[in-house]
Amino acid sequence: MPPKQVRVRFAPSPTGFFHVGSARSTLFNWLYAKKEGGVFVLRIEDTDKERSNPEFERIIFESLEWIGLTWDEGPGFTRADGSEVREKGSFGPYRQSERKAIYKKYLEKLLYDNHAYWCFCTPEELEAERQSLLASGSPPKYSGTCRSLPKETVSERQERGESAVIRFKMPEEKISFSDIIRGTVEFDMSLGGDVVIAKGLDQPLFDFANMIDDEMMEITHVIRGEDHIPNTPKQIAVARVLGFRKLYYAHLPLILNSDRSKMSKRFQAASLVEYQKMGYVPEALVNFLVLLGWHPEPIVDTKTGKAHEREIFSLEELSKLFDFKRVQKGGAIFNIEKLNWINNRYLRVLENKEIARRLREGGFVKEGIEESMLLKTIELIKPRMRTLKEFEELAGCIFSVPEYDGTLLVWKKSTKDESKKNLIDVNAVLQATGENTFTPGELKNALSPLTTERGNGDVLWPLRVALSGKEFSPGPFEIMSVLGKNESMRRITEATAKL
Ligand code: GLU
């Protein structure tokens, strides 16, 4: 019977950067919760004290806020600006480090009910056992040395201070579960033997604590990366003896490079914060992330009968369209060109004012640039701008001309003298042009007698270089319309002096 209310969770361990894979898992959880009118829980899995780090935890919160995937229930935190976000939800606390008493209670119960036992085997002993099994061609499996130690022996060895872990008595049977994306997945548990679930009563391992919390927090669907598939039957085995509810699982496909190789460090493994620094906007990034493994129903053109895939969606639309039926099993290819394309689509439709705000906020433009000039430049540049970071490269020359050599002013089919003469004559035309007619169209008209007479390249190449100081830049009419009459003429005069 389907659950009354969908409750999903994203359960990161703050042991490393928050990267694309984590963001994609969050997104699929979040979308599913929205689609089903459910609840999205954030749970911080910080039981591994040595590897967990508050800095990584802060990065998780900031990244989720940045991409707009906030949680319905979860931990509170203090933002970088000092503002506080309170813990929300009645199943908390939502940090595992604050829930140790709960795990301890269940570990004690499993020990008491004889479903688990203390194991004193040392790492050296276990390794020797493993090696000898491998040498004889058998799969490595714990032999169960400590499975039936008498209670007294256990107490004695503990009193002597021998270190021990807690192992779960794995049933020698097949365990299968139904995965929403993959169908039935089955594991033969007799192959692996008894598994360690805790290093001590206060040190549960991650998959044990994770399973206890999914029960306590009334989670209905576990949506996570496919690397967790092998953990699932172990979790199910423990959950069964504890009488816990059954869960629905959806294991998401791996993310691969364009050549299907393992993740590239530069992009996929990059922390989400890096994408912000690279000048991607969060709306575009989310749109890109959803397509890493999910594709909507193609749209069929009723006239031509041709099907095409829609690729641009808002979060709002996605939360209606998202469906596990259209999540693929095979690896999802990460293509940075596609991200650039999507980012450009978003930049094209963002208001200039909003782009200006983001450029300033992200430090993508030099300080002190006047707002109206910035807005005009954005209008000019945004059809070609793939990232906010590219703005400087594409438009920096509008705000100040870089140092350039006079030879750059001479078009390949022209001469130095011709270039100089053409620039002087352009300035004469501009002088006669009213400031209020400094629009690309009017300027083009005004200069057309000159370009017709002497050729486009001969006139417009030196003009464009004079205005931008660069070999490649926006067109001269566009640049002049942003710079205005005085500054345009000043740059041209300066250029003629170089010839
Ligand atoms: N803490 C686990 C991780 O970060 C979560 C696994 C899960 O979602 O169940 O990989």
Question: What is the topology?
Answer:
Elements: E1 7-10, H1 20-35, E2 39-42, H2 54-66, E3 77-78, E4 84-85, H3 100-112, E5 116-119, H4 123-135, H5 151-159, E6 165-168, E7 174-179, E8 183-188, E9 195-198, H6 206-216, E10 221-225, H7 231-241, E11 248-252, E12 255-256, H8 272-277, H9 282-290, E13 299-300, E14 307-308, H10 315-321, E15 332-333, H11 336-349, H12 352-361, H13 371-381, H14 390-399, H15 416-431, H16 440-454, H17 456-468, H18 476-498
Parallel strand pairs: 1-2, 10-11, 12-15
Antiparallel strand pairs: 3-4, 5-6, 6-9, 7-8, 13-14
Bound molecules: glutamic acid (GLU).
Glutamic acid (GLU) binds at residues 11-13, 45, 206, 210, 222, 224, 228.
How would you portray this structure in words?
This protein has a three-stranded antiparallel β-sheet with strand order 5-6-9. A two-stranded parallel ribbon has the order 1-2. A two-stranded antiparallel ribbon has the order 3-4. The termini are far apart. It has 18 helices and 15 strands. It is elongated, with a radius of gyration of 32 Å. A hairpin with a 5-residue loop joins strand 3 (77-78) and strand 4. The protein has helices at residues 20-35, 54-66, 100-112, 123-135, 151-159, 206-216, 231-241, 272-277, 282-290, 315-321, 336-349, 352-361, 371-381, 390-399, 416-431, 440-454, 456-468, 476-498; strands at 7-10, 39-42, 77-78, 84-85, 116-119, 165-168, 174-179, 183-188, 195-198, 221-225, 248-252, 255-256, 299-300, 307-308, 332-333. The structure holds glutamic acid (GLU). Glutamic acid (GLU) binds at residues 11-13, 45, 206, 210, 222, 224, 228.
